[in-house]
Amino acid sequence: MKFMKRLVWTLLPVFGLMPIFFIVLTLLPDRYVAASPKGRKVFVGKVDDRYVLYRNGRPFFIQGASGSTFLKELHEAGGNTIRVYDTLQLASVLDEAYKNNIAVIVGLPMPASVYRDYYRSNENVEAMYKAFFNTVVRYKDHPALLMWCLGNELGMTWKPGHYAFYNAYNRLLDMIHETDPDHPVTTTMPNFNIAQVLMIKYRVPGLDIISFNTFGKLKFLNAQLQRYAPLWNGPFLVMEWGAYGPWESETTAWNVPVENTSTKKAQHYLDMYTTQMPLTHPRFLGSMVFFWGQKQEITPTWFSTFSATGAATEAVHVLRQLWRKTAPDMDVPRLKYMLVNGEGARDNLFFRPQSVQAAEYVMEADNKAGITSVQWQIMKEDWYEDLKRKRPPVILLDTMTSAAGGNRLLFTTPLQEGPYRIYVKIADGHGNEATANTPFYVVN
Asked: What sign does the dihedral 377-381-387-389 (CA atoms) show?
């Protein structure tokens, strides 16, 4: 094994040929060995040809979400796991999760591999090592802890010049295993990437589980797993999945993504989980939907399953249906589309400053929920300012009851030229809401 590994790294710089690199890798055996169950709280075992995650001696299939809030609601919906991305307020998250019978995957954030100078600095690596060691020591015995996620989408590259990164990563991984043998370690990559999978397999052989963050490309995962099974046959998680990402969506003429209504996104959740998720795959350990809570990413509603005030979108009810195997809940607001002057987002809406426009929403024909309030907002959208991760200020806010305003709103466009969105939030008075938005551009 050592000779073959040395051969790989000798031939690669000499010939500079990717085919040679990967051909040699395929000749090496899969080094993954399931953890021993003896006395361990959480481990990956194998039953016949199937990998199984065990927790406290029992099989544990992950039905979870990424986030850190609404843990009581997650349990009520049938979820059993939450993934947090950092260690901020980790103690309170673990305690709240334990109270609600939720397991926690704890993220240990690291700079991506492209930051080579960072990993070449002994001072940086030592500081990170010390911080992670202290975290592992402090929380390794918490009963809510399920596993560690060492880095998120780090980029497990085959390119030369990343020895310092891999050395640092393996040192951290070894430290976690030695300090906390009771909990496995995973890491994530965007979608399924066979090159990165092979680099994990042979440069980070101690990693217990590989996890994929995948949205619109979830539909390809089953075929990819089957195609590359001879090269890698280890256990995996789908660590992020959900509404199609902004990078996968249609865009306007000014290059901003068009967001689906909350009802259409909920239908995507249902279709993706039932027809694309590798639920019967023998190496599949479970999945986590993105995002459980409210998150600003391009818009405040794109990935959010809850509003900032705690109202649940239709996606929450779909997840309950999937996880608890219940009948569909038809008593939540179901929104068909939103228009401005009779046109939709894909019609590229350009308006003059301070001009009066008419927005309206249309509910689905089978909507049974009563509407108690409708809230309209206009927010600025800017590619050059940091508004994609930071909630932009509300320029227009109009709240009205359905009796007073019906399904239409007359609004005056902003004075300043640039891109905006008009949002509508439709509440039923029972903690549920439907959302939609339409981008438009003010041209002076």
From this structure: positive
Quote the radius of gyration of the chain (alpha carbons, Å). 24
Any residues with CB less than 8 A from the CB of 240 and at least 6 apart, and which? 66, 188, 212, 213, 214, 215, 288, 289, 290
Distance CA 361, CA 378 (A): 15
Separation in Å, CA 222 to CA 44, 219, 293 = 21, 7, 28
Burial track 428-441 (b if 16+ CB lie within 10 A, e otherwise):
beeebbbbbbbbbb
Give the three-class secondary structure for 343. strand
Strand partners for 103: 81
| pLDDT, tens only, 192-209 | 999 999 999 999 999 999
**Residues 304, 121: Cα–Cα separation, whole Å:** 38
By the 10 Å C-beta count (0-12 exposed, 13-18 middle, 19+ buried), 340 is classed as buried
Reply yes or no on whether the pLDDT at 388 is more than 80.
no
Give residues with Cβ within 8 angstroms of 175, minimum separation 6. Answer: 129, 132, 133, 136
Of residues 26 and 97, more confidently modeled: 97
Nearest to 18 by CA among 207, 177, 157, 128: 157
Backbone angles phi, psi at 132, to 5 degrees: -70, -40
Decide the pairing of beta strands 418-427 and 373-380.
antiparallel
Q: Which long-range contacts (CB under 8 A, 24 or more apart) does 404-408 make?
A: 405/374, 407/360, 407/361, 407/362, 407/363, 407/374, 408/358, 408/359, 408/360
List, in sequence order, every beta strand (DSSP E) within 48-113: 50-55, 58-59, 62-67, 81-84, 103-108
Helices (H), 140-204: 163-179, 194-203
Which residue's entry shows tokens 């051969």?
7
Rounded to 5°, angle at Cα 257 from 407 and 372: 25
> Cα dist. 275→33, 219, 270 in Å?
30, 8, 8
pLDDT digits (tens, 9 = 90+) for 113-125: 999 999 999 999 9
